[in-house]
Design brief:
globular, 75 strands, Immunoglobulin-like, Rossmann fold, Alpha-Beta Plaits, mainly beta, ten-stranded mixed beta sheet, about 1100 residues, nine-stranded mixed beta sheet
């Protein structure tokens, strides 16, 4: 049994997948923060480090479908939403993630999409792999089809680029090799955005002769514009990215705060150390900062270049464990004596414990931001450090409205009013950090032999303390260069973190630490010692004499026995004349906590080793995922009400096809307690269909409920109903249960490919019905029959269908997948329960390896057919146009943000989507200004002014669909997204997508809004071409149709239409080779 302490963000959904359903979900639209950001509601497929492919409907999806890699067909997958991030973790990675051998971010689907690591935008998985011996590791990497891109000796690791079709092989080798110590995602960190230099006392240092001359300061950032007048001739550059030049402006701004001469402003915007040399390590691109590039830049700056000070105005979320960047900061500091000055982060005052990594490293001098009056900036990240309550940030500096150099051709920040072409103003701990780096350069010039820890201690001890600012907000205080270069006394350590006094407190004792004062001068210094908080802390003396060139110790004691629970901070202020040394103090008296033991028992009555358990407060922010192979795990949790659930594998084989979902909706923690999850308590869950030759494929079941006013849902996904069980433990809470299953004829090929029928049945039931043991036998008369006709436009094609079962409120309860022949026909039978609907999706194209299909991805409108009904759905038939249906919102305006997803393909059956083999470019304009351009079907922009304006969306596609739709263009001009409309053509085509040559035919032409509904338009003009658009002829549109005469012989018909809607919006659409005549 182990005790588990790691805290993660809260989730209200626990979903576990035990088989595969790779679903190319409907594309849709949602607001986003920036023009170039990925659309929140577009579908994404992400290949994991394990080779498994995960598909989600959107970046914000709470569920996913999974296609296991070859040879992993029986793998199970745990899914959960943590802090808005969807995690999908295969069962062979559970233990490795829990023991931190494998980076959890490798299975964070939301984060991988955010970083641009989805399959459409990246063909490799970027890794950082640590091993006992690098040559052996590099050999393993090479043998399994991957490539070592750089050695990262600071952390005994290599950066690896693994092709996504090779990752399964590399994963299998690495996870079974104990010489491979850890596998991290090579993720991305982000850069963290005249009176400020005098504010920190730099002019006094200049007057004393310290300008940074002879000191090299590394700036690991987006690069530096070395041609800027303030930096010209003093920049040494090295690029660790694939991007050339300084395209953001962040690195140039940072570098000029450190060492800009101010020549372009007549000296007004001079940096802190204007004669220092800048070592520019470009580790960031416009899309972010690769962690392996950062590590390589750190090695180059500290070891190869011997930088005395290294500025890192970048960071990312910190976790309790030590990550590669934190490890490198500590290792390189010890090895070289360099001082890493790192931004605290811009997570703001909304929460504590928001310090970014790698500023969270022990050796880092971590910098928060203050304004011109030394008040802590609202955006500046606060301490304590995650995991151990240590004091961070260490120090603070000006970071609000900082004017510094502007890189040529960049748009970061606000142009300075007096020199707009040369300078911009920006906010952020990114701007505060170089003030401290510059101060360190001045101090390093004064003391050539000092190491980083001495520079850090001096700067912290000399900081200007602001009484209104808390220690976890400001650290020691705002950097004071004037004092730092003049005083000769420092404290070791420069801050004292007592850590945690654990509950219960009846056995608390006092905690003591020693502060050593060091005097580097030739005369004794008599220090008067004062505390800023006397309730929590005491000193062994109020005065200490520090001999010349010597040290003196003082004991500081933290006594929380008589205090309330919570954090307690203070400062020791040692003074002697002009000398003042500030040492921050912190201790936390833990709130009321108790031991919660979770025991897991399998169907065989023995301790279970294969499980996923979650415990959280429904209205809290924290969530725990404890695990121990013994089957018993203990957590120490704050007093309160919790919800907990577990998923237990119940299969007797390695297939993991069975699952027991056991949950306790209310767990009162007011003392030590335990919960036993016993799979034998679970009641069976089962559905059946009328055809006895059918077997179940995808099975979803679970419950949703309200607990303490919060929505909570638990569910599982498995193959078939074998050993499917569910049970509620403890206090009963009314819930709604759901079960959904997919069926095809037994032994009918790959996921039912050759089955003449399919059943998609789902039902919502009271939770009590599900918990009592559920078996629902569907009868033919209560089902709806929908014939599926799959069209094919090339030999050798295949198809896949997905059916999404949803409640009327939009919550997805399950997704079923089956294969089909193309061309092919099948009858699908659907359950018809009121309050639910089905969303159909189909992929048609060529096999592209594994379960991949290269070709059409189409989504139909949601439907809820009546019992006993029959209908037909046609999929993939020409003509192919751009048109909308009501499967989702396609174009939205919310506040200052406009976002659009324009389906590049719509078939004759009114199914909308895209074709993966086509090239697509979509652009958004406001007037003539290009706001966004994407090589995909979505565009968007934020920061738009209120009020009416003329917008335009254009979309161009190239690449044929079976020889048709070789080139299309759509142009939508509008003021309100609700005005957008498209044109649908409905020619009568034969199976070859052709009309009869030499005949006349009437073709309906319809205007449709963004929900696919017919609308009236003010004007509509149609042209046609028989020579691929070289020449055009006009046709008369009358009574919603046009009559065309087709020439003899054979060829193609191209169409072009221009229309004006009732409100003045305009649409122009062109389709080259819409259909054939022959």
């Amino acid at each position: 049994m182990t005790t588990f302490h790691t805290v993660r963000r809260r989730t209200a959904v626990l979903l576990v997948a035990t088989m595969s359903v790779a679903m190319p979900a409907a594309i849709g639209a949602q607001t986003r923060a920036a023009a170039a950001a990925p659309a929140a509601h577009s579908p994404y497929t992400v290949t994991l480090v394990t080779g498994d492919r995960v598909t989600v409907a959107s970046m914000t999806a709470a569920t996913a479908s999974v296609e296991p890699a070859a040879g992993r067909e029986d793998m199970s997958f745990a899914m959960s939403v943590v802090g808005g991030h969807l995690l999908v973790i295969p069962s062979d990675a559970h233990r490795l993630v829990q023991t931190q051998r494998v980076d959890r971010r490798l299975f964070d689907i939301s984060e991988l999409i955010k970083l641009g690591y989805d399959d459409r935008r990246r063909s490799t998985v970027p890794l950082i792999m640590e091993a006992a011996t690098l040559p052996a590791l590099k050999k393993t990497v090479s043998e399994h089809g991957a490539r070592t891109t750089r050695e990262l000796t600071a952390v005994k690791a290599v950066a690896v680029s693994a092709p996504k079709d090779k990752t399964a092989s590399l994963w299998e080798a690495a996870r079974n090799d104990r010489a491979v110590h850890r596998i991290w995602l090579d993720g991305k960190r982000q850069p963290l955005l005249d009176g400020s230099v005098p504010q920190i006392g730099a002019p006094a240092a200049w007057q004393a002769g310290y300008t940074g001359r002879g000191i090299s300061v590394a700036v690991l950032d987006t690069g530096v514009d070395a041609s800027h007048p303030d930096l010209a001739g003093r920049v040494v550059e090295r690029n660790f990215t694939a991007e050339t030049g300084e395209r953001v402006g962040h690195g140039t701004h940072v570098a000029s705060i450190i060492a800009g001469t101010g020549v372009a402003s007549g000296g007004r915007y001079r940096g802190v150390a204007p004669e220092a040399t800048i070592l520019s390590g470009k580790v960031c691109e416009m899309s972010g900062c690769s962690e392996s590039a950062i590590l390589a830049g750190m090695q180059w700056a500290a070891v190869d270049q011997g930088a005395r000070v290294i500025n890192m105005s970048l960071g990312g979320e910190d976790f309790p464990s030590v990550d590669p960047l934190e490890e490198a900061v500590n290792a390189l500091t010890a090895q070289t004596g360099a001082l890493f000055v790192i931004a605290a982060g811009n997570a703001g005052a909304a929460d504590t414990g928001t310090i970014a990594s790698p500023g969270s490293a022990d050796a880092a001098l971590t910098v928060g931001a203050v304004d011109r009056s030394d008040a802590v900036a609202g955006f500046s990240s606060r301490g304590p450090r995650t995991g151990d309550e240590a004091i961070k940030p260490d120090i603070s500096a000006p970071g609000v409205g900082i004017v510094a150099a502007r890189a040529a051709g960049t748009e970061m920040g606000e142009p300075a009013a007096d020199f707009p072409a040369s300078y911009v103003a920006a906010d952020g701990t990114s701007m505060a950090t170089p003030h401290v780096a510059g101060a360190a350069a001045l101090l390093a010039q004064e003391h050539p032999g000092w190491r980083g820890d001495q520079l850090k201690a001096t700067l912290m001890g000399a900081a200007e303390r602001t009484a209104d600012n808390a220690v976890f907000d400001q650290g020691a205080g705002r950097v004071d260069v004037r004092r730092a270069i003049t005083q000769t006394v420092t404290a070791d350590p420069p801050s004292v973190s007592f850590g945690l006094q654990p509950w219960p407190h009846d056995d608390d004792t006092t905690l003591t630490r020693t502060i050593t004062y060091r005097n580097t001068s030739s005369v004794a210094v008599a220090l008067a010692l004062n505390l800023t908080h006397t309730k929590a802390f005491t000193l062994s003396t109020s005065r200490v004499d520090v001999p010349p060139g010597g040290t003196a110790d003082v004991t500081v004691t933290a006594d929380t026995r008589h205090l309330d629970v919570g954090p307690w901070t203070g400062q020791v202020v040692a003074t002697a004349g002009e000398t003042r040394v500030v040492t921050p103090l912190a201790v936390r008296k833990e709130d009321e906590r108790y031991a919660v033991t979770l025991r897991h028992i399998g169907l065989d009555g023995k301790p279970a080793t294969d499980y996923l358990t979650q415990i959280f407060q429904p209205n809290g922010r924290d969530s725990w995922f404890p695990y121990d192979p013994s089957g018993s795990v203990t957590l120490r949790l704050p007093k309160g009400r919790y919800t907990t659930a577990t998923y237990l594998h119940t299969s007797a084989t390695q297939s993991h096809s069975g699952s027991a979902l056991l949950y306790q909706p209310i767990l009162d923690v007011s003392g030590d307690t335990s919960v036993t999850f016993d799979a034998r308590q679970g009641k069976p869950v089962r559905q059946s269909v009328p055809d006895r030759t059918a077997e179940a494929h995808d099975v979803f079941f679970g419950v949703s409920m309200q607990v303490d006013g919060a929505s909570v849902r638990f569910g599982t996904l498995q193959q078939g109903f074998d050993n499917a069980r569910i049970a509620e433990i403890g206090t009963h809470v009314q819930a709604t249960g759901y079960v959904m299953s997919t069926w095809a004829r037994r032994d009918s090929g790959d996921i039912g490919r050759d089955s003449p029928y399919a059943y998609y049945v789902g039902e919502q039931v009271p939770g009590d019905v599900l918990l009592a043991g559920y078996h629902r036998a569907f009868r033919t008369g209560e089902l709806a029959a929908v014939t599926q006709r799959i069209h094919s436009y090339a030999p050798g094609q295949i198809a896949r269908q997905w059916m999404q079962f949803s409640r009327d409120d939009g919550e997805v309860l399950g997704v079923g997948r089956l294969g089909m022949r193309a061309p092919g026909t099948r009858i699908n039978y659907y359950s018809t329960q009121a309050g639910s609907s089905w969303l159909p999706q189909t992929a048609i194209g060529m096999p592209a390896g594994g379960d991949r299909i290269a070709g059409l991805r189409l989504t139909g409108s949601p439907f809820a057919p009546p019992a006993g009904s029959s209908s037909v759905q046609e999929w993939g038939a020409a003509p192919y146009t751009t048109a909308f249906n009501d499967s989702q919102q396609w174009v939205t305006r919310s506040g200052d943000t406009l976002q659009a997803v324009i389906p590049s393909v719509s078939d004759a059956g009114a199914h909308s989507g895209y074709d993966t083999t086509q090239s697509v470019t979509t652009r958004l304009y406001r007037g003539d200004e290009l706001l966004d351009e994407q090589d995909w079907v979505y565009v968007g922009a934020s920061g738009l002014p209120a009020g009416p304006a003329s917008y335009r969306i254009t979309q161009d596609t190239t690449g044929s669909i079976g020889g048709l739709g070789t080139r299309t263009q759509s142009i939508f001009a509008f003021q309100d997204p609700a005005e957008i409309f498209t044109i649908r053509y409905e020619p009568r085509l034969d199976s070859r997508y052709a009309v009869v040559a030499g005949t006349r035919q009437r073709m309906p032409v319809k205007a449709l809004d963004t929900a696919g509904r017919p609308i009236e338009v003010r004007q509509l003009a149609l042209e046609f071409s028989f020579d691929d658009g070289t020449t055009w002829q006009s046709a008369v549109v009358a009574k919603g149709a046009v009559t065309l005469r087709y020439p003899r012989g054979s060829g193609h018909v191209s169409l072009r239409v221009s229309a004006t809607g009732a409100t003045g919006a305009e649409t122009t659409q062109t389709v080259i080779r819409a259909y054939r005549y022959q």
